[in-house]
Amino acid sequence: MTNDERRTTKETISPASLAKPIGYANGILTQGGKILFLAGQTGMDATGKIENPFDLIEQFRKTLENIKTIVNEAGGELTDIVRMTIYVTDKRAYHAQRERVGEVYRAYFGRYFPAMTLLEVKSLYDANAMIEIEATAVIGDS
What we know:
The protein is α+β, with helices and mostly antiparallel strands. It contains three helices and six strands; from the N terminus they run βββαβααββ.
């Protein structure tokens, strides 16, 4: 079921006076649907342990899988996400692996890009976590 079939509309906002966004959207205007706020997700498994404690790419993959699980449980899909805030403990490591990050991202989202922010933080709640992502989705009424 597409967003239109669920009576939700999304419009990407990219003013010509701003730099063209690559890999994110400057803004997304939505109408209709329900808002889902996702708590920060990490590469945590069902037992509460971080999978692959020293592998940023695998933690990113597991984090996106956890986000997908929550959005699907709420009746949505990943392209219903309109905002993501990505927290990393090592921005240089993230940049050094950005091609692999992009491959994992596209495996989940394709060429869809919500409004996004990347922040480097000193640490995350779980000492083994290298990445945490908060998200907001707008899910249409079924």
